[in-house]
Design a protein that fits this description.
- The protein is α+β, with helices and mostly antiparallel strands.
- It has helices spanning 3-17, 45-54, 76-93, 110-125, 144-157; strands at residues 20-21, 29-33, 39-44, 58-63, 70-74, 99-104, 129-135, 162-171, 174-181.
- The chain has two domains: 3-82, Translation initiation factor 3 (IF-3), N-terminal domain (Ubiquitin-like (UB roll)); 99-181, Translation Initiation Factor IF3, CATH 3.30.110.10.
- The protein is built from five helices and nine strands.
- The two termini are 59 Å apart.
């Protein structure tokens, strides 16, 4: 494929994502909406372009799938700026939930369990969810009840700041439990 065809495909895909403006609009007739929001009606594209040029604004195709397509006269730069501002504001208001993982063994000592519980408490105070995993090796798979006891003991240690979101459950060689912060 030549470079020219790649450029055309790229440009075509780019136009699909973005709104078509001014010279990119290839339709004969469009339904025109004035910059005030009033409907002008179905007009020729050349006439719509001339109206937009008189007001020193852009002709933007807002609804390309309509019959005939709907175009609006607006300041496209200002419109894109406002859209970016709205997206940024929406992203700022989103709350991300992080999941921190703590790994244990079925034969963990009491002190090590307390240290891991301290880490989990720190995570839960930061409003993060905690995934607690007990990994079984070899013959330990025959004694999964010890892993369940370890997870229940762990849940008791962090019960003042966290609650069990998902009860202990076997997944392959691991037993997994999720904790979430108390509200």
């Amino acid at each position: 494929m030549s470079l020219f065809f790649i450029y055309l495909i790229y440009r075509r895909c780019f136009n699909i994502k973005e709104l078509q403006i001014n010279g990119q609009i290839r339709d004969r007739e469009v339904r025109l909406i004035d910059f005030n929001g009033d409907q002008v009606g179905v007009v020729n594209v050349k006439k719509a372009m001339s109206i937009a040029e008189e007001r020193k604004l852009d002709l933007v195709k807002v609804a390309p799938n309509a019959k005939p397509p709907v175009c609006r006269i607006m300041d496209y730069g200002k419109y894109k700026y406002e859209q970016a501002k709205k997206e940024k504001e929406a992203k700022k208001n989103q709350k991300t939930i992080n999941v921190k993982e703590i790994r244990l063994t079925p034969r963990i000592e009491e002190h090590d369990l307390n240290v891991k519980a301290g880490k989990a408490i720190k995570f839960l105070k930061n409003e993060d969810k905690v995934k607690v995993t007990v990994r079984f090796r070899g013959r330990e798979l025959g004694h999964t009840e010890t892993g369940k006891e370890v997870l229940n003991e762990f849940a008791k240690l962090v019960s003042d700041v966290g609650v069990i979101d998902k009860k202990p459950k076997m997944e392959g060689r691991n037993m997994i439990m999720f904790l979430s912060p108390k509200n």
